[in-house]
Amino acid sequence: MDIDEKVSGPGGASQKNWTHLNTSNELPLEMRFNHGHMVSITVYTVLMIISATGNLTVLSQLLKRRRAARASRLDLLLMHLAVADLMVTFLMMPLEIAWAGTVQWLAGDFMCRLMMFTRTFGLYLSSFVLICIAVDRYYAILKPLNVKWEAGVRKALATAWICAGLASLPQSFIFHLEEHPDVKGYFQCVSYGSLPTERHEFAYFLVNMTLMYIAPLVSTLYCSSAALAEIIRRANTANDKMRRSGVGILGRARARTLKMTVTIVLVFFTCWSPYYCYCLWYWIDKESVRSLDPAFQKAMWLFSCTNSCANPIVYGVFNRNRWHTGPNARYRNGSMRRGSRFPFGDSMEISAATLVRARSSLTSERNGRRDSSFNTKNGTQKQLNHNNNLVNNGVV
């Protein structure tokens, strides 16, 4: 028997169509444990170890910052991204390892539907959290004093979790347990026959690709481009109000966190683009794809899974100075230079306290300009008193 492997949406090479059985009584190579299954088990095991080590380390560091009341908005978002990657690590990867070991599906119809749901939930959640991070960077750089997003970031994360569940739910209806028509007792978890036509299959694939790949890519490109343009504009503006009000000292920190966000998305694009290009190739020219070695598609899917391993590495590179939690941590590696006004070294985010001080400073500055204009017409004594008050209050 030959197995015609079709590309699926986020599910990888799991849609298998039963075809004709050979006259030989021996099962074909695809239905028996072979060298390809051994390679899959080895690669998934290595990826799982790397991803678990990296994401658990990142999550522990973020939880320490949260317990120390130093967690920022970005820390909360990165915490959810690490949780999403850990779901991929401990739900999807062990499933792939066990499935490659047994070759056929041995867990029954209910577990087939449930595991296909959990198989994609972490992937969708990771994509939707990336969208939240992109929007957060947009507000942090273009509208740093906007309190609506500061209060709504948790609602955005809750929406990301709900949308990930809704997007993964069709997997439970499409995938089902089916017995081979010619080999009794040989079961497989397949999506074959669930959708009426190939047009429906293609539409389902497009929806998956849009939600998991195109949406986070487009949103991040737009938000990052707008943020970068704003940084360049402020750098070329001599009388930047934000710089004079005190928030400008965090311009470098915002630039660094923007670089980290762009790097995370570049890694996302690098890991997932080959797989989705292969999928599009399949729908454009199925015959040429079917002539390729089935291991090629599995390699594309395996490469996309490396995204869960790469995210903690990116975070560690951009936050290496924040990983010291000892009493003298803020003075290590020059992270707290003399005269620096960053509370914890080169902070990657504007804290809530800093935003409050910035708003107060901006309000005082506006009041100061109005008083200065009034006192210029009516004398200088009140102006001098106003300036003295500003100095005493630490505003100037």
TrEMBL record:
InterPro entries: GPCR_Rhodpsn, GPCR_Rhodpsn_7TM
Subcellular location: Cell membrane
Domain of life: Eukaryota
PROSITE patterns assigned: G_PROTEIN_RECEP_F1_1 (PS00237), G_PROTEIN_RECEP_F1_2 (PS50262)
Biased composition (Polar residues): 373-383
Chain residue ranges for the region called Disordered: 360-396
Record GO biological process: cellular response to hormone stimulus
One term of GO molecular function: G protein-coupled receptor activity
Keyword Cytoplasm: no
Keywords: Cell membrane, G-protein coupled receptor, Membrane, Receptor, Transducer, Transmembrane, Transmembrane helix
Protein family membership: Belongs to the G-protein coupled receptor 1 family.
PANTHER family assigned: ADIPOKINETIC HORMONE RECEPTOR, ISOFORM C, NEUROPEPTIDE RECEPTOR-RELATED G-PROTEIN COUPLED RECEPTOR
Protein name according to UniProt: Gonadotropin-releasing hormone II receptor
Species in which this protein is naturally found: Papilio xuthus (Asian swallowtail butterfly)
